[in-house]
TrEMBL record:
It comes from the Bacteria. The lineage of its organism: Bacteria, Pseudomonadati, Pseudomonadota, Alphaproteobacteria, Kordiimonadales. Substrate binds at residues 172, 193, 230, 256. One of its GO terms (biological process) is transmembrane transport. The keyword Signal applies. Na(+) binds at residue 231. GO terms for molecular function: metal ion binding. InterPro entries: DctP_fam (IPR018389), SBP_TakP-like (IPR026289), TAT_signal (IPR006311), TRAP_DctP_sf (IPR038404). This is TRAP transporter substrate-binding protein. Keywords: Metal-binding, Signal. One of its GO terms (cellular component) is tripartite ATP-independent periplasmic transporter complex.
Length: 379
């Protein structure tokens, strides 16, 4: 018997059967056709298992546990019809190979930072973070209500991907430096781990940026292969133990003011979902987007106190003249990205307009309030 033809015919048959027919269908199969029967039953009940590859170390706080929460939430919401099996960086593909694996259909979905894919298209960083760009709240407003998702869909579709917001680490720190940065000259020849457009900004100040996956940073810093690194913020930085190597920790970097993370589906997989399942997956991703941001805000405060009070970390700020140069180069870099092609220009224009709206509202809302809270603290 031609098992392939037989399997196809069963797929056609099960479309017309109810769920109650699954057990009888399997029972009716001979032992020789057991594998075909199981496949047909899976189609009949709509159950499927998807491979999720991430760019993060296994079970790493926030970055690693967030996508697992998302996967578990999808399984719960679909009552087990969709099971997502998570593979951490290096288990199925390397951290930076996640996008290609999903685009080519070797995996079903990824969880990562979109700026890792800027080599594919220069506009991808707008959907993670760009230097002197939007905060988390501003970025969410753009993606959900300012046309950002539609532009993201257009960009990702070129690579057979459908992406959604699925986490945010909030404002990231300026990074860990072996030596203090007191002038522009201190950037000359500085080897710093910094991906995305932030790395290009630092390059223009004289540094040498390198891209390394999270699991590679500690060794590179401890062996002197890099002189500085940004990673995420106090919670994740404490977990990685950077404070055991260097003590100079710079606050709020300009490179990632609100770093979004994404779940990206192979588009053929995404299109195969029913509208109901797509809606549930979107809801699960949106919930994780909110939950991860809240978790980072809670954990970063505790971890920062631990780094300073228990490990002797020096909390520093870049001098004003350096911050000004970083800002000036940032605006140049992102404008240059807008000139690469029509879609990048439309993404840039939309992003810039949304940032302007966010800054305008923020000035009269949270900015004014938080300044009042600092000026008149609780006794």
């Amino acid at each position: 018997m031609n098992s392939k033809k037989n399997s196809i015919s069963r797929r056609g048959l099960v479309k017309g059967l109810g769920l109650a027919g699954a057990a009888s269908l399997v029972a009716a199969c001979s032992k020789q056709e057991a594998s075909d029967c199981k496949e047909s039953a899976a189609v009949l009940t709509g159950k499927r298992t998807l491979k999720l590859v991430t760019t993060w170390p296994k079970n790493f706080p926030g970055l690693g546990t967030g996508p697992q929460r998302f996967a578990d939430r999808v399984t719960e919401m679909t009552e087990g019809r969709i099971t997502i099996k998570l593979y951490a960086a290096g288990e199925l593909v390397g951290a930076l190979g996640a996008f290609d694996a999903v685009s080519q259909g070797k995996a079903d979905l990824y969880h990562g930072a979109e700026y890792y894919w800027q080599g594919k298209a220069p506009a991808f960083p707008f959907f993670t973070a760009v230097p002197m760009g939007m905060t988390t709240n501003e970025l969410n407003a753009w993606i959900y209500y300012g046309g950002g998702q539609e532009l993201w869909d257009e960009l990702s579709a070129r690579f057979n991907v459908k992406a959604l917001l699925c986490g945010n680490t909030g404002t990231q720190m300026g990074g860990w430096f072996r030596n203090e940065i007191n002038s522009i000259d201190d950037f000359q020849g500085l080897k710093i781990r910094m991906p995305g457009l932030g790395g290009e900004v630092f390059r223009r100040l004289g540094a040498t940026p390198v891209t390394k996956a999270g699991g590679e940073i500690f060794q590179a810093l401890s062996q002197g292969n890099i002189d500085a690194t940004e990673w995420v913020g106090p919670w994740n930085d404490l977990a990685f133990g950077f404070h055991s190597i260097v003590k100079n920790y710079y606050t709020s970097g300009i490179h990632e003011p609100g770093a979004a993370l994404a779940v990206g589906f192979n588009k053929e997989i995404w299109d195969s979902f029913s509208k109901t399942d797509q809606a549930m997956i979107k809801a699960a991703a949106a919930e994780e987007n909110s939950m991860m941001y809240a978790e980072y805000n809670a954990q970063n405060a505790r971890a920062l106190r631990t780094l300073v009070n228990e490990h002797g970390v020096k909390l520093l700020q870049f001098p004003d003249d350096i911050r000004q140069r970083l800002a000036e180069e940032s605006y140049k870099v992102i404008e240059e990205v807008s000139q690469t092609d029509d879609l990048s220009k439309r993404i840039y224009d939309s992003y810039r307009s949304a940032k302007s709206d966010g800054m305008y509202w923020g000035e009269f809302a949270e900015d004014y309030f938080t300044q009042s809270r600092r000026d008149f603290p609780e006794k």
